[in-house]
Amino acid sequence: MKKRILYAEANYAAMVRKNGYFVDKTEYIDKLERVNNPVFLRPRRFGKSLWCTLLEHYYSIRFKDRFDELFSHTWIGKNPTALHNTLLVLHLDFSTVETGEMAVMEASFNHRVNLELDNLVYQTASGTWGLRYSMWIELGTEDGDETSHPRSSHPIIQLLKLFFRLSQQHSIFDK
């Protein structure tokens, strides 16, 4: 089947599923793992979002069952690193955060992050550890609402709580 050029496709899994033309730069994943604090600075339309979704599919434990489907045709699929499909990856897309007044922006930011955390906890936990409930972490509170979530001691939830306690200490919304 002939490869197609998929203009503006920024999702790696969709690119593979639609048989899109893809320049394999996955050998850089191995090199990237040896870099401390990488930053991706490229001009518009240079594939930053595609690269980030490729990394998400490569590292996330949620896509472990799809590794061969997504990467068998790539350099990294033939030479995987020890970290492939072993991490919890939190995908954050801030392009939908409302801007303007600080209170509106903060509420929109909190809502977006909570939705993605809910998605991460539900998909990862239910798929890997059999935990079948949805967790909502309220940003701006110290511990979240313990009473409404009887399994709040689950390791994933504890990890997410720790992450948000640390992130709140360095908030971009300092007043």
Question: What would a concise description of this structure say?
Answer:
43% of the residues lie in helices and 0% in strands. With 175 residues, it is an all-alpha fold.
Describe this structure in words.
This protein has 175 residues and is an all-alpha fold. The protein is built from seven helices and no strands. 10% of the residues are buried.
Draw up the topology in text.
Elements: H1 12-17, H2 27-32, H3 48-59, H4 67-71, H5 75-78, H6 102-128, H7 155-169
Please tally the β strands and state the result.
Answer: 0
The ordered string of helix (H) and strand (E) elements is: HHHHHHH
Count of helical segments? 7
Q: Report the uncertain regions.
A: 128-151, 170-175
- Which term fits the overall shape? globular
Helix content range: 40-55%
Largest β-sheet summary: none
Q: What fraction of the residues are assigned to beta strands by DSSP?
A: under 5%
**How confident overall, as mean pLDDT?**
75
Coarse structural class: mainly alpha
Cα-to-Cα separation, first versus last residue = 56 Å
The rounded Rg comes to 18 Å
Which terms would index this structure?
single chain, 175 residues, mainly alpha, 7 helices, disordered C terminus
